[in-house]
C-alpha cells in the first residue's frame, strides 16, 4: 500500500471515529435531557395536584408546554425504534448484533438476509435510472418531456419538526447555561470566591464591603450553597424591598438551572414561591425574616443568613442585626454575613465586636457628573427635558431616571411617550420601563430585558434602583436629588410620607449605576453647591424617624421586655419608645405591667400595622370579618385605585361619584362597593377600564385579601359577614383600631380638629366626602398627609357616642359629652354641618 493511500485510509478512520464519538455523545446527551424533562414533568404534576387553582395561568401554560414537549419527544423515539433497515455484518463484534437482528426479523416473517436486502436496494436504484436516449437530429424538433423520461427519486424522509424543536430547545438551554456561567465568572466577586468561603468558615460574622455591580447579592448565597452550607439548612438572603427579593430570586434560579420556587425561591409579604424541604436558597424581605424569628427564635431552618443592603438602615434590617447578634452567640455553627455597598461598614464591624471586613471591588467605569446651573423648580419637567437632551445628542446607551414615587413615574412615562410621538422621526424609537414597589412582577421584569438594536430604553425608578437592582446597559443617569421618607411625629402621633433631599451617599450610589458597562454620565437636577452644603452625608436610619408601634410589639412578643436597654445599633429616643408603649396599651396589646396580652399575640401574627390589626380583630365582635378583610386590603391601595386620563377627566369623575352616591358610609364603604362590583363582574379588566379603575391595583387587593383570609384561620377569626348595607357595624370595627384618628368639625364648618392632638386638618379633595354639601360633625380617617395643608384621606363619618364603646380606656364618657355639647357653626359658603 502506498504512503498516500495509507495516509488517506488513516484520515478516514479518524473521521469515522470522530463521527461515531459525536453520534454517541449526542445520543447520550439526548437521553440525559429527556430524563431531566421526565423528572421536571413529574414534579410539575405533583405541584399541580397540590396547588390546584392556586397556580397562575402562566404556570399552567408552562406545565402544559413541557408535557407536550415530552410527549412529542417520546413519540419521535418510538417512531425511530420501528424503522426498517438492514445491516451488513463485519468480521468483529457487529456480526453478533447483525445475526441477532436477523433472527428477530425472521420471527416477524422476514426471510431475506441483510446482504439480499442491500443488493435489492442497489438494484432498485439502478432500475430507477432512465437510460439516456440517443439524440438524432434533436435540434430539428420541439423538445417534449414525458413521464417515462422522469427520474425516480427515493425520499429519505422530511426532517421531523418535533425532533428539530426539541433539539433547538436543548441547544438554547445549553447556550443559556454557558452564558450564565460566563457571566458569573466575569463578576468581580468571582476572583474572591475561595477567600470569601474560607473567611466564612473561620468567622461566625463577616462584614462584606462590596461596591455596586460586584455580584454580592446573586453570588454569595450561591457560593454558600455550593460549598455545602445547605446540607443542614437553607441560606436566607434578606432584601429591604419586595421587588428586589422577587427579581433577584428569578435571576438566581436561572443561574442555578432550576425552576423558580424549587431549589431557589422568594418570600415577600402576601406572596411566596418556595417549596418546603426542597428550597435551599431563599430571598426574602427583612420584614418576613423578622416574622420567622418571632415563630422560631433560633431560625432552625437556616444554616446561614445574608443581610443584604445593610447600609440602607431599614427598620427591619436594624432589628434583625440586633436579634441575629444574640442568635450567633447561641448557635456556633450559624453564619451571618452582612453586606454593605458603602464604606461606613466599620460601624457594623464595631457593633458585632470587631467582625472582620471583607472588601470586594466593584466594576465601575469613569463617570462624568453634571450639575444644573440653577435650582429646578419643577424637577419632573426638568427630568423629562433632560431625557430628550440625552436622546437627541448623546451616543447609544440606556437612561435611568430617579423619581420619588409611583405617581411621578407614571406621569413622567406618559409625558415621555407623548413627547416622543410629537418628535416622530426626529428621534429614534424608545422603550419606557417604569419600576416601583407596587408594580406587578411581570411588569418589573421588563427593565431587565435586552434593548432591541436601534432603540433606547428609559428606566423610570424610585430609589430601589440605587443598590437593590442591577440593570445592564445603563449609560446615563438623571438624579432628581429627592426621595420619599416615612417620618413619624411622636408628639402629634402623625405618620407622614414626605419628600426630602437624598443623602450624598445615595446620590453617589445613583451615579454609580451609569458606570457599570462603560464610561457614563450622571445629570444632577440640583446645583453643586446644594450637593456639598444641603445634602446630608448619610441617610438617617429608619428606626430614628418611624412609628415604633409594630417593632415594639414584635420585640415584646419575643419576650424582650426591657426595651430601653435593648442593644439597638442606633437606639431610638426614650420619648419615642415610651409613646409607642402607650399606644400599644391603648390598643389592648400590652397590660399595665408591659406584658403582651392574648390580643397582642394574635395581632403579632398578622402582617399588618397594629391599628389595622386591631380593626380586623374587632370585626369579630361586630360580625363583619369578611367586610373588614376587604377594607384592610383596599385602604393601602386607595391612592392608586382610580385613574383619570386628561381627555376623559369628566367621565372619570362621574364614574368615581357613582361608587360614593350619597356618601352614606364615606370612602370606606365606597371601597367595599368597588370590590363587590369587581367580584360580581368576575374580576374583569374591561369592567375596570369602563369605570376608570386600575386593574393592577385591584388585582393586588385580591392577592392581599386571599392571604388575609388564610391568616384569619391561623388567628382563629371566624368568617362572619354583615353585608355592606350595615355601615354602622363596619365603621365601628374600623374605629376600634383607629380611635386616635378621629376628628370633629371646627367652627368654620370646613376644617376638622383631631381629638388626640388638636391638629387642624382638611378632608383631601380626592375623598368622596369632600364633595358633600353638608359636613359631618365627626369623622375617622385612615391616614394623614402633609403638603400645603394637613390632609386626611380615606375618611368616613362616625357618631361621637361610638368612641366610648370602641375605646372606653382612651375616650372617657365625660370628655365625649363635653365635645358633643359644644355648639358648632353650620359652616360658610355652600358647606353646611351634618348631624
From TrEMBL:
Gene3D superfamilies: 1.20.120.1080, P-loop containing nucleotide triphosphate hydrolases
EC number: 3.6.4.13
GO molecular function: ATP binding; hydrolase activity; RNA binding; RNA helicase activity
Protein name: RNA helicase
Coiled-coil ranges from the UniProt annotation: 27-61
The keyword ATP-binding is assigned to this record: yes
SUPFAM superfamilies to which the protein is assigned, alphabetical: P-loop containing nucleoside triphosphate hydrolases
All copies of domain Helicase C-terminal, residue ranges: 366-559
Catalytic activity reported: ATP + H2O = ADP + phosphate + H(+)
InterPro entries, sorted: DEAD-box_helicase_OB_fold, DEAD/DEAH_box_helicase_dom, DNA/RNA_helicase_DEAH_CS, HA2_WH, Helicase-assoc_dom, Helicase_ATP-bd, Helicase_C-like, P-loop_NTPase
Spans through the membrane: none
GO CC entries: catalytic step 2 spliceosome
Pfam families linked: DEAD (PF00270), HA2_C (PF21010), Helicase_C (PF00271), OB_NTP_bind (PF07717), WHD_HA2 (PF04408)
Enzyme class: hydrolase
Helicase ATP-binding domain: residues covered: 197-361
Record's keyword terms, sorted: ATP-binding, Coiled coil, Helicase, Hydrolase, mRNA processing, mRNA splicing, Nucleotide-binding
Cell cycle keyword on record: no
Biological process, per Gene Ontology: mRNA processing; RNA splicing
